[in-house]
Amino acid sequence: MATVNTVWGEVSASELGFVDFHNHLWKEGGLECLEDHDFAIDDIAKSRKELESFVQAGGGAMVDMQCMGIGRGIEQLRAISKGLKVHVIAATGFHKGSFYDKTHFVHRYDPDQILELVSSEVLEGVEKGDFFGPFIDRSEAKAGVIKCGSSYYKITALEEKLIRVNARASKKTGCPISTHTQMGTMGLEQAQILKSEGVEPEKICIGHMDRDPDHVYHERVLKEGVYLQYDCIARIKYHPVIDTMELIKKLADKGYGDRIMIGGDWGRASYLKAYGGSPGMEFIPKTLAKQMPEYGISDTLINKIFVENPARFLAF
Fold it and tell me: What does each C-alpha distance from 41 to 2, 34, 69, 100, 234 come to in angstroms?
């Protein structure tokens, strides 16, 4: 099996174990944190404690989806995970367009320039300052996933530009793409744009889809050949856990069990126990995975969702 880029180097995909496919160990700065400080996850000791709880609960790997220009900290990810028996995968690429102030380079650089920046983070190492400074200072850590995003019920001109750039970076490097959909909208359109740029569907994962728990729409997206990511787990303010479990069962019954992955996306300090919140990063391996049989989900399917599918998707 091919390898996966982690913040401590390449590892065999077979070594990942139980994977939380979407989470956030570090956020410092960026428009999101400026608008609401609860989005700041900026204490190395607390984040390390949170990651330790994930490992103790059986977690083997975590994809940190904090991408370029919105408070990413590549060296902080290395400090948080140093010496722990866990694989952390870092992201390059970009979020939805509203996260980038008009002064950000994404508005000024042409696609070829941005393509070079994204590709270099996969091939050479993540730039420690997100290319904000006059000098390039690369981490030893290489990005293991490329992120792109879109807005609620629309893909803006900037977002389409960045989605297409990220598609070309994926083609150039082989690195997989994971997307942000706002409330589960525009997933089909994202998949179609990425495929139009020549990205193989098995390299594409459409994210946050259970924000809109419509299994008919999800099947429409899956027919594009892509993966889906569910990460609205236990956020009762959106919908109960059973909604996501029912989605998984219905889609698995139609043969899509090998293209579903789950992440916590605990992107607020108030979701993390070490920061005084709940349910914490331990929730998925410690509680959710063990409760899934009560919803009628087999051990075989659970293993696919948390072990086999992410290992296959992240390898390149």
Answer: 32, 12, 15, 19, 20
